[in-house]
């Protein structure tokens, strides 16, 4: 049991700007696991920034890269993985990431999502629709739903105790 906990991946899902990256970093440190940000892995693979991939190659290309990375990371162990907000759109991503991992939905109210520099969440109306479309997916795949309304420190500690 203890060994399983140690080697498992923790996979964070949730809306853009819900705190997956900042929470994930803290959590990884506390659990002694490696922190991996899927968006960063995608950028490394493509040799371009996310907005560049969207602008130059389109969303489908981005989603294909995302699936490629999900399949790669899903085979590895001892990671805290911050997914992109849209990783739940393809069931195969969740299947791959869930193999060695526990999937946690980081829930945060719409008005509190950070929206800086994110190509798919530029206007509030679009973000609202996105939230409505995706909420059922986050709820379906997240084995544990977690509210991140407090500060990052407090949230990370709370999440940690929930995971034990
Ligand atoms: C996306 C969210 C982004 C990034 C890309 C697409 C989405 O990640 O993967 O811009 O579809 O919600 P964050 O959730 O880290 O912002």
From TrEMBL:
Domain of life, per lineage: Bacteria
Compartments reported by the entry: Cytoplasm
Positions bound to Mg(2+): 21
Binding, ATP: 17-22, 118
Binding site for substrate: 39, 63, 85, 134
Record-stated family: Belongs to the shikimate kinase family.
Protein role: Catalyzes the specific phosphorylation of the 3-hydroxyl group of shikimic acid using ATP as a cosubstrate.
Quaternary assembly: Monomer.
UniProt name for this protein: Shikimate kinase
Organism: Anaerovorax odorimutans
């Amino acid at each position: 049991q203890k060994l399983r906990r140690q080697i498992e991946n923790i996979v964070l899902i949730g809306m853009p700007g819900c705190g997956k990256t900042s929470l994930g970093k803290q959590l990884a440190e506390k659990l002694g696991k490696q922190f991996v940000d899927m968006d960063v892995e995608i950028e490394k693979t493509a040799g371009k920034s996310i907005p560049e991939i969207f602008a130059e190659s389109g969303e489908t290309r981005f989603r294909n890269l995302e699936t490629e990375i999900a399949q790669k990371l899903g085979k590895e162990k001892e990671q805290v993985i911050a997914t992109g907000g849209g990783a739940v759109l393809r069931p195969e991503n969740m299947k791959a990431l869930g193999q060695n991992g526990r999937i946690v939905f980081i829930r945060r109210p719409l008005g509190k999502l950070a929206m800086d520099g994110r190509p798919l969440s530029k206007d509030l109306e679009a973000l609202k629709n996105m939230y409505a479309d995706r909420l059922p997916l986050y709820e379906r795949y997240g084995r544990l739903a977690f509210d991140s309304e407090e500060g990052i420190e407090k949230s990370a500690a709370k999440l940690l105790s929930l995971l034990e």
